[in-house]
């Protein structure tokens, strides 16, 4: 097992940021979906022909959806998603997708560029003159064919085999303990958190699509705030420490996927997740991951998987397994 030294150099960062929903970049807005169906959308800028059609009539909203090749952006049900870039006086035009429904409700959400969070709900569904909700047939609102939709239902994961599986919880001989006094490997008997809060993994799955790499995990205990999943990335076995580390810190039912770079004390948001009691699914979006990483072709690259838990002035990490990126379908 390699030295899983995290890229966080200051112990205080890990100890006092657990459970925090990290702020996004200044030009990025948090979208929050209060409904139980994913919201797929396209962005309509103010100075555009589409904006003129949207503001002219309800038919304009339907035309925008029909003319959009693919609704590539999505906010998961009950979840959050980042909206990149300056969006002054823009609209989000999209649909709430409920599988099996003959038509999808159409919604238009005005973007307040000064708002940190924009809540999307059924109140944004457009109504016609008779007070009936505006809807569109599924074949006119194309959402693409990604292998996974973050909907907290997990049915689309069933065809994919686990990368690792622990039918019985592992029992590591030691773990990494980090306090204000430093960081060291100590005997498992000194752990306060092992076996709690989702620290014992059951299965890990991953698959790559056109927009993102998707990750699913299940645990032997209920996921609770304070727990994090870590992926320590190495280009090969000769690399002494992880240049990049992905962290998924559990807050509530939804939150961010973070990318830490070695030597940096601030993470970058590269995706989002949704979770249930014992299950979590996440996406690492290509449009959020630095291009310098996406452009690399590393046939021997791998990630060490660990869980962590922070509380009571300490942070504990538990190594689970190694996965080679070449084993992920679609990569």
Could you walk me through the main structural features you see in this protein, from its secondary elements to its overall organization?
By secondary structure, the chain is mainly beta. It folds into two domains: 11-24 and 150-327; 29-140, no CATH class. It is 8% helix and 38% strand. It contains four helices and 20 strands. The strands form three sheets. A twelve-stranded antiparallel beta sheet has the order 9-12-13-18-17-16-15-14-19-20-10-11. A hairpin with a 3-residue loop joins strand 12 and strand 13 (212-219). Helix 2 (49-56) runs antiparallel to helix 3. The longest helix is centred in the first third of the chain and has 10 residues, at 58-67. It is elongated. The two termini are 24 Å apart. Mean pLDDT is 89; it is low at 1-20.
SSE inventory with pairings:
Elements (H helix, E strand, L loop, with lengths): L10 H6 L12 E5 L5 E6 L4 H8 L1 H10 L5 E3 L4 E4 L7 E6 L7 E7 L6 E4 L14 E2 L27 E2 L8 E6 L2 E6 L13 E8 L3 E8 L7 E8 L9 E6 L4 E8 L6 E8 L3 E7 L5 H4 L7 E10 L2 E11 L7
Parallel strand pairs: 1-7
Antiparallel strand pairs: 1-4, 2-3, 2-5, 5-6, 6-8, 9-12, 10-11, 10-20, 12-13, 13-18, 14-15, 14-19, 15-16, 16-17, 17-18, 19-20
